[in-house]
Amino acid sequence: MKLTHELLARFSPFNTLAFDYLSKVMEKASVKEYSKGTIIFKRGRELRELFYLVSGDVDLIDSQFEVTSISSETEPYSVPLNSTSPTKVSAVAKSEVVILSVESDFSDLVLAWSESGNEQASEDDADNSEPASAEEGDWMSSLLQSPFFNKIPPGNIRQLFLRFKSQKVAADEIIIKEGERGEFFYVLEVGSAKVVDKQGNILAALRPGDYFGEESLVGDTTRNATVIMLTPGKLMSLEKSDFLTLLQEPVRRYITYEELTKAGEAQNPYQIIDVRLSVERRFQSVANSRNIPLSHLRKNLPSLDQSLIYVVTDDAGRRADVAAQLLTQAGYETLILQDAGLHHVDNK
């Protein structure tokens, strides 16, 4: 059976979504077939998917071995078979069945996005009757699918969209300037921009969905580059306090040296990262740490091993916070090693 918008809209809560939002959910959905007698999922499991009965018969068996039989023929079953996680029942195919599975975290994000978007749209409609362009919808899609935003709790995503403020910008307008204090986090909603250094060299090009300005907020430092609009456009801005509460705190995780060594590299392979300058660690550093100065970290991100947990030593101060943020945004599992200075060894 083919996955279609119509099929997805048969089920709750997707039947409340507009076509564009359904399209996004479909990117993380699939249709699966199970033969009679197959266990679809077991009781007590943490599942990353929601399972919906499209056709056939399923038995749901609880801890007391009581059976609830569900048939797509007698009564449409619009809610997921696994309504809780961990699951409280086992699901067994009583006949040949077709199941729709949807990635639960992503669907939560899209729902939060759609609800927040509707509230924002109702406010905007009062002041502006111009229809939204496809480009304006793309920025949300790109943002939500980035590795970093997949780590943010859905409730925070909803608050995020409510607190974003939209602003129109002109071509050649300077959004942030190198050396100035940072007070806002930005997402490019419409248009294009460039990131340049003091010499005018282009460091990066930005398009809808790209975000910038977070490093100075995390480290409480000045801007390290200038961002200039290439075309007229729109920005979504978020105040520093909201950024720290909604986007930094939920993903910042700490670990002690004792916890790290107790876990054991065999069970949880990790790499300790020291982002100080090489001259700073000339005499002492945490044993077996790899030195990647913060100024070199961004260009080294693509070459890092996705299978490792990266543990950033906190002896670099605020630079450690910035490094952990950059690693997390790039999709790496990241921890900050507390009191790293107490575990330095002499470098001979």
**How many structural domains does the protein architecture include?**
3
CATH fold description of the largest domain: Jelly Rolls
- Across the major sheet, the strand order is 16-21-20-17-19
Report the major sheet: 5 strands, parallel
Tally of extended strands? 22
- C-alpha-based Rg, rounded: 24 Å
- CA(first)-CA(last) distance: 65 Å
Tally of contiguous helical segments: 10
The CATH C-level name of the largest domain is: Mainly Beta
CATH homologous superfamily name of the largest domain?
Jelly Rolls
Could you walk me through the main structural features you see in this protein, from its secondary elements to its overall organization?
The chain is of the alpha+beta class. It folds into three domains: 5-105, Jelly Rolls (Sandwich); 131-248, Jelly Rolls (Sandwich), CATH 2.60.120.10; 254-346, Oxidized Rhodanese, domain 1 (3-Layer(aba) Sandwich), CATH 3.40.250.10. Helix content is 28%, strand content 28%. It has ten helices and 22 strands. The strands form six sheets. The chain has a five-stranded parallel beta sheet. Strands 2-6-4-5 form a four-stranded antiparallel beta sheet, with no helix packed on it. The chain has a four-stranded antiparallel beta sheet with strand order 8-15-10-13. The chain is flat and about 70 Å long. 31% of the residues are buried.
